[in-house]
From TrEMBL:
<dbReference type="GO" id="GO:0008237">
    <property type="term" value="F:metallopeptidase activity"/>
</dbReference>
<keyword id="KW-0378">Hydrolase</keyword>
<feature type="transmembrane region" description="Helical">
    <location>
        <begin position="126"/>
        <end position="145"/>
    </location>
</feature>
<dbReference type="Pfam" id="PF02163">
    <property type="entry name" value="Peptidase_M50"/>
</dbReference>
<dbReference type="GO" id="GO:0046872">
    <property type="term" value="F:metal ion binding"/>
</dbReference>
<dbReference type="InterPro" id="IPR044537">
    <property type="entry name" value="Rip2-like"/>
</dbReference>
<protein>
    <submittedName>
        <fullName>Site-2 protease family protein</fullName>
    </submittedName>
</protein>
<keyword id="KW-1133">Transmembrane helix</keyword>
<comment type="similarity">
    <text>Belongs to the peptidase M50B family.</text>
</comment>
<keyword id="KW-1003">Cell membrane</keyword>
<feature type="domain" description="Peptidase M50">
    <location>
        <begin position="123"/>
        <end position="163"/>
    </location>
</feature>
<keyword id="KW-0472">Membrane</keyword>
<dbReference type="InterPro" id="IPR008915">
    <property type="entry name" value="Peptidase_M50"/>
</dbReference>
<dbReference type="GO" id="GO:0006508">
    <property type="term" value="P:proteolysis"/>
</dbReference>
<dbReference type="InterPro" id="IPR052348">
    <property type="entry name" value="Metallopeptidase_M50B"/>
</dbReference>
<keyword id="KW-0482">Metalloprotease</keyword>
<feature type="transmembrane region" description="Helical">
    <location>
        <begin position="12"/>
        <end position="34"/>
    </location>
</feature>
């Protein structure tokens, strides 16, 4: 998402902050609802972006379009019932929240494009950024490589033996992920997910599909 001018950059900032803040809040809220007090104890059950920002990750998000938020700490031993299933649900909550935000943004964008609601160019650009950013955040986090959410979601679906293999890969996950990003292979993985989600959301909200 290259910036054409300073205004584009200033519009991008609140869009990315909303995306990552709601993503991390969703993880913490679902974990708390499942019985884990850790997110609440660490002050993560808030929509204040400051509570969720990692300084280096935020700078990279703003200027390199790749970065990270402060991960929500979760202790599955507090979960009632199946711990592995609980972790899968918590992990799914973040990308799901991004899909919801993308849908809401697209819904407003569709109304604006049909001139159903009054809107100026700045808000139009903001909504467009909000949709695009949240689609990318959802899709990227669904890559099944630790420490991304997709790895824990996959571990919750697979048989326990296969899930244990994924857990053992966690120590190598960041290195594998970095290699995927540097080589550009990560885009080959999450790109089709972005297109699939965009097709569903744009169709549902009446926006011409153009991804």
């Amino acid at each position: 998402m290259p910036f054409g001018n300073l205004l584009d950059f200033l519009i991008y900032i609140p869009a990315i902050l909303i995306g990552i803040t709601f993503h991390e809040f969703a993880h913490g809220f679902v974990a708390y609802r499942l019985g884990d007090p850790t997110p609440k104890d660490q002050g993560r059950l808030t929509l204040n972006p400051v509570a969720h920002l990692d300084p280096l990750g935020t700078l990279l998000l703003l200027f390199a379009h790749f970065g990270w938020a402060k991960p929500v700490q979760v202790n599955p031993y507090y979960f009632e019932g199946d711990k592995r299933r609980g972790m899968m649900i918590v992990s799914l909550a973040g990308p799901f929240m991004n899909v919801v935000l993308a849908y809401l943004g697209a819904l407003l964008l569709g109304l604006a494009l049909r001139q159903t609601i009054p809107i100026n160019d700045i808000m139009l650009k903001f909504l467009s950024d909000l949709v695009q950013i949240n689609l990318i955040l959802a899709a990227f986090n669904l890559i099944p490589v630790p420490p991304l959410d997709g790895s824990k979601i996959l571990a919750g679906i697979l048989p326990r033996e296969s899930a244990n293999f994924i857990y053992r890969m966690e120590q190598y996950g960041p290195l594998i992920l970095m290699l995927l990003i540097v080589t550009g292979l990560s885009q080959n993985i999450f790109g089709p997910i972005v297109k699939f989600l965009a097709m569903i959301i744009f169709t549902a909200t009446g926006i011409p599909y153009s991804y």
